[in-house]
Amino acid sequence: MTGEKVTLKRIAPVFFTAVLALTACNSGGNEAAPEEASQANAEPEETALLAEELSGLLVHHTGARGVFLTFHDVEDGTQTSLINLTDLAMAEAAGTGINAFWDKFAFSPDFKFAAYEHDGGLRLGELNAETYSYDWTGTVEPEESATFSGGAVEYLSPQFSPDGSQLWFEEQLEHSEGDSRVLSVDVAAPEGEPEHRGDAPRDIGTIHRVDSRVMSGQGAWRGPDNVYAITEDNQLEVLERVKDEEMGLDYFVGDATGVVPWNFVEGVPGQFFGPINFNRSTFTELHALSVSDDGTVSDEGIDLEATGNSISRMWADKENHRLILLTGSSYFAYTPGSDDEPVALFDDLTYEERPEGAYQPEILGVYPAHKG
Fold first, then answer.
1. Measured between alpha carbons, how far is 7 from 74 in angstroms, rounded to an integer?
2. pLDDT at position 240, please?
3. Minimal CA–CA distance to 124: which of 27, 222, 192?
4. Does pLDDT of 173 surpass 50?
5. How many angstroms separate the CA atoms of 77 and 348, rounded?
6. What is the DSSP letter of 355?
């Protein structure tokens, strides 16, 4: 929603309050001047990021000198914001060679909060609207680093609840072969006792990691066998992986969540598109796919045939009911079911402020302006 804000209040420093009090004492008991009274009684100044600054094509950058997010306008590729994640991701003994890859992070739906897997625990950060960075605000970690029979205890696979108020994660025991516990804490009080939300298979993945990895040339990484979702009423659902060997379709399915694609995309709710027998490189035929009541995905035929270009990546722009296609270094917009050819948007992402010392950019998807 245009103009929606993620609002963070800047609290007046203590020493500034003390100066005002001293000034009042030295005034000989006279009433403060109007401008002084107004200054003393002023509400804390608010600093905010427009929701538009936290929407569009999201790109993750990592390198020897830090880790960053950039958002880019989906119409022309221009950078709208640069968000610094380095403080959240750096080790206590800060140094170079940071390897804070995108799959170690999770973000709340409005990007106000972030979590990062670190040394068996989870670092929690809050977005600072003045510095455009995530400030490390605390760590969620096991009370005991190891158990006698289970070995080391780790908190993994963080994921925020749909309203952003809770952080969920897997509690994994090093030597256990059984299911892991899924726990949660309130973001407002992360030091509290974690709540047990249910159990899930070991090494459970998250919806965020799957959504960000779709059609990204996953290489040899086969991904998790299961992922967990948090329903709108804050219930745990474990999704099972389905592999259709005949058509080469790969996805996860659950009763409440439905289908979560691995090698195709959901354009708008209930409408899926992708290549058949995707070779994890490029494709020239985009198929329309349907989903039955039992979660089976079927091929409905070719929706788009790229005769002059090979498509290497695509992302759903659900807000505009279209797909964003990448061919070479050029980006196109395509409305599924249309008789029109994809429309050229831009060549290459552009930067007003390129992340310093970072490399290995990874586009994580198209994120609409948060409406919460």
1. 24
2. 95
3. 192
4. yes
5. 7
6. P
Cross-strand bridge partners of residue 70: 59, 82
pLDDT of residue 247: 87
Tokens 């379709």 map to which residue?
249
pLDDT value of residue 190 = 94
Q: Return the structure tokens found at 263.
A: 């090698």
Could you tell me the CA-to-CA distances from 154 to 88, 99, 176, 207 in Å, in that order?
A: 18, 19, 12, 20
Nearest residue to 359 (alpha-carbon basis) of 63, 25, 30: 63
**346 has pLDDT over 90:** yes
Q: Which two tokens stand for residue 305?
A: 């045939």
Residue found under tokens 């072969």? 177
Q: How far apart are alpha carbons 349 and 368 in whole angstroms? A: 18
Q: Calculate the alpha carbon distances from 298 to 35, 276, 288, 289, 301 in Å.
A: 70, 10, 9, 6, 9
Q: pTM (2 decimals)?
A: 0.82
pLDDT value for 342 = 94
Contacts of 51 (CB under 8 A, 6+ apart): 1, 2, 3, 4, 5, 6, 110, 369, 370, 371
Of 104, 89, 61, the residue nearest 358 (C-alpha): 61
Integer Cα distance of 236 and 289 in angstroms: 27
Phi-psi region of 3 (alpha: psi -120 to 50; beta: other; left: phi over 0): left
What pLDDT score does 5 carry?
A: 37
Specify the pLDDT at position 229.
96
pLDDT in tens, 5-42: 333 333 333 323 333 332 344 444 444 444 444 444 54
Output the CA–CA distances (angstroms, integers) from residue 228 to 206, 209, 252, 337, in the order listed: 5, 11, 10, 32
**Positive or negative, the Cα torsion across 242, 158, 100, 66?**
positive
The string of pLDDT tens digits covering residues 266-289 is 887 778 998 887 766 788 999 999
Tell me whether residue 76 is exposed, middle or buried, using C-beta atoms within 10 angstroms of its C-beta: 0 to 12, 13 to 18, 19 or more.
Answer: exposed
Starting at the edge strand found earlier in the chain, the sheet holding 180-186 runs 146-147, 151-160, 166-173, 180-186, 195-200
Q: Dihedral sign for Cα 102, 248, 243, 219, please.
A: negative
Spatial distance between the Cα atoms of 160 and 209, rounded to a whole number of angstroms: 12
Give the list of residues 6+ apart from residue 33 with CB closer than 8 angstroms, or none. Answer: none
